[in-house]
Specification:
With 436 residues, this protein is an alpha/beta fold. The termini are far apart. It is built from 15 helices and 15 strands. Bound molecules: beta-D-glucopyranose.
Length: 436
């Protein structure tokens, strides 16, 4: 009988064999291809937004935030004299299409309702819209949805300019709707609210929650696929790093992927993000059950389990009890089953943390910053998977791995907790930034 570790290895799941150097190189190559407009699994989408400039103060604006699960609307302003944002009229609902199909009218109406509610409080009628999905951005700041991730069921929205579609359903029409990726708003919010006096040579916005993605600031001269007059300037790039595909999947990743709405897509995201870790774990458990790793009762239980949330897998592996019953506690009722199950699934989280670090290293290097210890690269991080996973500590593993990869290169960086409500704050920053 094989050990759980040997079983994982036989199926291509090996945490100790992650080739960090090779992955780092592939990430950087894919970035270059994406920036040049050649085929690449990294979309490298120009945002036409730069984080430089001063904020207009005392001007409340309407902001929207469409995430994987929730939709929020609010009013945000930056009072003069303070460095923080004030958020009011905040309301939260469900992201349309998250649990069932929604048609375009139903989809946009969910956002329009928030705008009607908050518009009377705004002094500038432009809207900042944090939209946490892959969009091509127009130079004017609208966003065209390229494809859905996070299993959203609203197929007609794909290919639409989301800001324009929303605007035409509003009366009066807002003069401008800026559609921004959540990694872009994280980066903008992080920079706009940093303490006076701190120096950073470059900025990265990173999300690891239901989905994952990275944005960073790139020199316009390096973005070969667009022609932009200001070759000396720079702009934020939404890399759509979750789409990275130059990585070897295990048999369990492939089995899980085959059951998703977007099989073959978002390979990297499906190895590290919250929407998928539970599903990968379930595939491992089912395969292990078929290979007699569990008692017959546990095997029957796990083979009949239809779905497994990352949250439950994490709490089980970390032996953390909550008020809500965890299906795995019922299924793995004996000490032996529990121990085998934990040995099989803990590596799902370990692998995710290491891969997270490797790709962050690649983006830190791509910024070209961090050569002066007094001006590190600021990596502004948001997301529940990163901060709330209990089985392993993402912040610790990422810090250690990045130290090991970047210290020998004399590259300095800082992992920063992003400000509260970064999607709302960053969306307002985008509307209120004025170039000097
Ligand atoms: C989306 C990205 C988003 C990320 C984090 C991914 O599924 O493709 O656009 O930034 O999730 O929310």
């Amino acid at each position: 009988m094989k050990t759980p570790e040997e079983f994982l290895e036989d199926n291509g799941f090996r945490v100790d064999a992650i080739d960090r150097t090779a992955l780092l190189t592939s990430f950087r190559q894919e970035m270059q291809e994406g920036l040049a407009g050649r085929p690449s699994s990294l979309k490298m989408l120009p945002s036409y937004v730069s984080p430089e400039g001063d904020l207009r103060r005392d001007v409340p604006v309407t902001v929207l935030d469409a995430g994987g699960t929730n939709l929020r609307g609010a009013t945000v302003e930056f009072p003069s004299g303070g460095s923080g944002a004030v958020i009011s009229n905040r309301e939260k609902g469900e992201m349309p299409g998250a649990t069932e199909y929604v048609d375009p009218d139903g989809f946009y109406e969910a956002f329009a309702a928030h705008v009607r509610r908050t518009a009377p409080f705004a002094k500038d009628p432009s809207i900042g819209f944090c939209f946490s999905y892959a969009c091509e951005t127009s130079p004017e700041g609208d966003g065209k949805l390229l494809y859905w991730t996070k299993q959203i069921q609203a197929p007609e929205i794909i290919g639409q300019w989301v800001g324009a579609e929303l605007a035409r359903r509003l009366d009066p029409r807002p003069p401008k709707i800026l559609v921004l990726n959540d990694t872009v708003t994280t980066l903008l919010a992080g920079k706009a609210t940093e303490k006076p006096g701190v120096r950073h040579s470059a900025y990265i916005g990173f999300i690891l929650g239901t989905g994952t993605n990275v944005a960073y600031v790139e020199r316009n001269a390096n973005i070969g696929k667009i022609s932009i007059a200001d070759r000396d300037g720079s702009m934020v790039i939404n890399t759509e790093s979750g789409g990275f595909s130059k990585i070897t999947q295990s048999a369990f990743d492939r089995a899980m992927d085959a059951k998703t709405h977007d099989a073959g897509a978002q390979m990297f995201e499906k190895m590290i993000a919250g929407a998928y870790l539970g599903r990968v774990g379930l595939e491992i458990f089912k395969a292990a059950a078929r290979n007699s790793f569990f008692t017959p009762e546990a095997a029957r239980g796990i083979l009949s389990l239809g779905s497994l949330a990352s949250y439950d897998l994490d709490n089980f592996c970390a032996n953390h009890k909550t008020e809500q019953p965890n299906p795995l506690d019922r299924i793995f009722a004996t000490d032996v089953d529990r121990s085998v199950a934990r040995r099989l699934a803990t590596p799902v989280f370990e692998r995710a943390a290491i891969l997270t670090a490797v790709h962050l290293a690649a983006f830190i290097l791509q910024t070209g910053g961090g050569t002066d210890p007094n001006a590190p690269v600021c990596v502004c991080i948001d997301g529940s998977t990163y901060y709330k996973t209990r089985t392993v500590s993402f912040p610790k593993i990422v810090q250690d791995e990045l130290d090991a990869m970047l210290k020998p290169r004399n590259i300095f960086f800082e992992l920063a907790v992003c400000p509260d409500d970064a999607p709302l704050v960053g969306a307002a920053v985008a509307v209120l930034l004025q170039r000097n």
